[in-house]
Amino acid sequence: MFSIAKIKRSLWASFFLIFHDAVASQITFPDLSADARTQLASLFHFQNGEPKITDPAFFLSGEKSDLESEFESNLSAYMDGEQRQAYLCRFPARSLWLSKYLGEEYALSFDHCGDLYEYLKRVPADEISLVYASENILSPSSFMGHSFIKLKDKADNQTHAVSYFTEVEGFNLPAIMFEALVTGKDGYFIVSPYKEAKRYYKDIEGRNVYEYSLEMSDFDRELIRLHLWELKDKKIDYYFHTNNCATLTLNILTISEPSLLKHSEEWLSPLDVVKYVNGSELAGPVSISPSLGWRVRAFGDNLSLTEKMIIFQSLTDKSGKALPSVNSDDNASAILEREYRKALNEWVYFEEKINQEQYESNRSSIMESGADFEDFVVDLSDYKNPVHRVADSQLIMGGRLRESEGNVLLSWLPASHLQRDDNRNAFSESTLQVLKSTIGIDKDHLYLDEVVLYGIESYIPYDEVIGGLSGRFRLLWERGGYESYSTNRRFHVDGALGIAGNSRPAVLSYVTLGSGLSASGDGVWLSPQLEVGSFLYLANDSKLNLKYRLIFNELDRSDFIHNVEAVNTYRIAEYALDMGFSYAGSEHFSEPQALFNIRRFY
Fold it and tell me: What are phi and psi of 195, to 5 degrees?
C-alpha cells in the first residue's frame, strides 16, 4: 500500500507541475493589469523602471534588472519543482502574490521554513498602523520626524515596530550631509517590540507619537507581513532625499494601496507619508500618545503660576500631606487639572525629585480626588494633528526693494519649514532649513545669494515648573542682504540660547543671546548677537513676525548693527504671501528694505 500511495502522489505532483508549466507558458508581463504592475513594482522596489534596492540577494534576474525580467525570473522559480520550496522561504510575499495571480485555491505553507515559520508565529499582523513620531529638531537623525509601521494581534498582546533608519553620529554636519546625499549611508531595517520603540520616542526623546490605523484586506496585511521578511538582512543604502524612512514606508504601503505609488518619485518626508496615507483609502482612526513634557505644558496652560507651584510643592512634599482637592465647579477645567497633576507627578518622579513610594502615594491621591471624572476622556486625536500642517517643501519667489536698487530672489527649500509658517499644529514654533538655496537677480547679473546647509530654531514656552530653553543654530554660506555684503561673501555659523513665553494664547515672544562665527578671504571673526522677537497669529490665517537684532562686529568692523524686521504672512491653501519691511543700520550705513515673497508648499 505504501508504494502504491507513493506512486499516486508522484503522479499527482507530475500532473500538477505539467499543468502549471502550461499555465506559466501563457502568462506574460503585458497580461498584468496596471494595479498588478504597481503592486509588483512595490514588491520589487522599482521606481521609474529602476530598482531602489540594489542588493543582489533581493533579485533573481541579475544586478541590471528590469521589472519585466524580474517578474519572469520569479515566476519561473515559483513554478520550478526543484526551486519552489527554497523560493517560498526566500520570497514568501512574492510567492503569495503569484499564488493569488495564478488562481491557486490552496493556502501556501511555510512550515518547512525554519526562521520564517518562527517569525510568523512571533509577529502577527491582525492590524497594521502607520506611526509618526513628531520631529525633534535638536537631533540630526530625527529633525523631520520618523515614520514606521506597527503590526499587532487582535488582543494587542504582541505588537512590533518595523522601522528603517540610519545612524547619525558626531557633529560634522557637512560630512553627514555629503554621505546622506551623495555616497549613501548604511540603512538598517529592523523589527522590534513596539513598546520599546514608543517608550524611546516618548520618554527619551520627548516626541509625540501618532498612530494611524490602516484599513486593508487580510490578503494585503499578510502580503505586507511576508514582504517585511523579504527585506530582512538586505543591504539598503540610505539617502536623505531618495531612500529614507518615509520612502521605504510609503513603498511598503503601496503594496496595499497602488495609488500611493505616484508620490514615490518625490523627495518624501515622514510628514508627507502621513498626509498621503490620510488622503487615501487606507485612512482609519487616529490616536495620539503625547510625550510627558508636552502633557505637562499642555494640561497646565490654564493654570496660574501660583496654582502650578502649589501642586508641585504638594507632589514633592515628603511630610505625607494630602493633595489639595481639585476645583470641580467647572468639569472641563477640573479634568485638565487632574491630567496636569498626573503628568507632573510622572515628571517629578522621572527627574528623581521623589521616590517610587511617594510617586505611588501621589498617584493614588490623584485618582481618588478625580473619581467623579473617571468616565471622562480627553480626546487629543485632532489636537496639533500633523495632517493639518502645510507640506514641508517650498518654492519661493520674491524680492528686496531698496532705495537705490531691487533684487529678485528665487529660493528652494526641499525640507522643511520656516519661522513664518503656520506652526500651530507643530510641536513648537520652529524653523528647519535643510539645503535651502537662493539665487538673486539684479539689473546686471544672476548670482548665488545664500545656501543654508542646516538651520534650526525652536521656541518652546518656558514653564515655571519644568523650565525649557529656546534657541537656534545655522550653518550657511551667504552673500547677504546688506549692500556691504556684495564684497563680504562668507561662510557663517551662529548659535544662540534663550527663553520664550506666551503673553497671550496667540502671541509668543522670545529673547536669545548668542554669537556668530564668520570666515572669508579677509579672515575669521566673531559677532555676538542679541535677538528679541514675537510671533502673533491674527485673523484670516495670517501671522505677524516681529524681530529686533543687535549684532556687534557682523562685518568685521567692530561696530554695532541694529536690524529690525516685520513680516506679515497670509496663507491661502497651498500658498503663502509674505509682505513686510526691514531696516539695518550702523555708523557706516543705513539700509531700509521692502520685502515681498510668494511661497508655494508642496
Answer: -60, -35
How far, CA to CA in Å, does 495 sit from each of 513, 518, 531, 559? 8, 12, 11, 20
Structure-block grid coordinates of residue 470: 529656546
Rg of the chain in Å (alpha carbons): 29
Is residue 377 pLDDT above 80, yes or no? no
Helices marked H in 157-264 — which ranges? 173-178, 194-199, 218-231, 245-254
How many residues does this entry show for the chain? 602
Burial 336-374 (b: 16+ CB within 10 A, else e): bbbbbbbbbbbbbbeeeebeeebbebbbebbeebbeebe
Does the structure show a pLDDT above 90 at 537?
yes
Please write the tens of the pLDDT for every residue from 285-300. Answer: 998 899 898 899 888 8
Q: What sign has the CA pseudo-torsion 57, 261, 266, 128?
A: negative
**Residues 543 and 420 sit within 8 Å (Cβ to Cβ):** yes
CB 441 within 8 A of CB 408: yes
Helix (H, G, I), strand (E, B) or coil at 126: coil
Phi, psi (deg, nearest 5) at residue 483: -60, -35
What is the spatial distance between Cα 446 and Cα 50, in angstroms, rounded to a whole number?
Answer: 36
Give CA separation, 463 vs 316, 347, 502, 527, in Å.
17, 13, 10, 30
Q: What is the DSSP letter of 162?
A: E
pLDDT per residue over 138-194, tens digit each? 665 567 788 999 999 998 889 999 988 776 665 566 666 676 666 667 777 888 999
Whether the model clears a pTM of 0.85, i.e. scores above it, the answer is: no
Confidence of residue 484 (pLDDT cuts 50, 70, 90): low
